[in-house]
Amino acid sequence: MPESHAALALDDDERAELDAVLVAGGHDLEYADGLFCALICGPAAVDRTCWLTLLFPVPVTGDAAARVLELVERHWNDIAHRLSLTREALDEDSFYLPFTHVRSGAPGEALTGQRWAEGFRAGMAMAPDAWRPLLADEQVLAQLAPIVSLARPAGDARFGAAADREALTDLLPLSAYRLARQLAVRRRTPLRVERPGRNAPCPCGSGRKYKHCCGAGRPVTH
After folding, report:
1. Is 75 exposed, middle or buried (0-12, 13-18, 19+ CB in 10 A)?
2. pLDDT over 50 (residue 191)
């Protein structure tokens, strides 16, 4: 794995750390992974404050805020990096595999791929005017089909057996790569989100310098 890519990817402990913070706010890393994929592949930029507020309805404050923001940025950039690679540059280590939790099948628990698909659809809902015209494009619809199906809850009469969910989950990487390429011409958001300089305006839109805002360990959301 290239050194630049290895520096982005979260290890298992870091994933568990970020997942725990997200769960405290009502989401999880699977949901965030789907959300980030939709925002990265999507045809329009979405202000970072919007999706941070969605993921962290209860602001993370103090020293923990800078750490959480670091993990969020690295996971975003890891997905973006993988999806930006050409087919020739992809290998087993760099290929994007959506993060999905192993499910026990307990009553009331989310189904395989459901939280990822819900996160992706939440990302689409943040730019409805940009996505709406694309829903008439058969190529785009073909890639969205497994995502829409996986977002359906247990008991939905339009969905088949658990094995069908696993098969659709296996299609998610292909859908992500095809959407990233199909929508590249329309995309206005950069694939990478770099940490700004300390004296640069904070990208959250607060109007303050980064060092006095998100870069100072202040709340992740405003």
Report:
1. buried
2. no
Between CA 6 and CA 49 the distance in angstroms is: 27
Give the up-direction half-sphere exposure of residue 38: CA atoms within 13 A in the CB hemisphere. Answer: 25
pLDDT for the residue 127: 93
The average pLDDT across 191-209 equals: 59
User: In angstroms, rounded to a whole number, what is the distance separating the alpha carbons of residues 218 and 203?
Assistant: 14
DSSP codes of every residue in 141-182: HHHHHHHHHHTSPTT-TT---HHHHHHHHHHHHHHHHHHHHH
Token pair of 144, please? 């969205």
Two tokens, residue 128 = 């409805």
Structure-block tokens of residue 52: 């941070």
Contact 183, 42 (CB under 8 A): yes
* Distance separating alpha carbons of residues 114 and 119, to the nearest angstrom: 9
* pLDDT reading at 220 higher than 50: no
- What is the pTM for the complete model shown? 0.79
The three-class DSSP label of residue 54 is helix
Residues paired with residue 98 on neighbouring β-strands, in sequence order:
none
Q: Which of 154, 160, 106, 123 is nearest to 35 (CA)?
A: 123
Q: Which of 93-102, 149-158, 213-222 has the highest mean pLDDT?
A: 93-102
- Please give the Cα distance from 139 to 145 (Å, whole number): 10
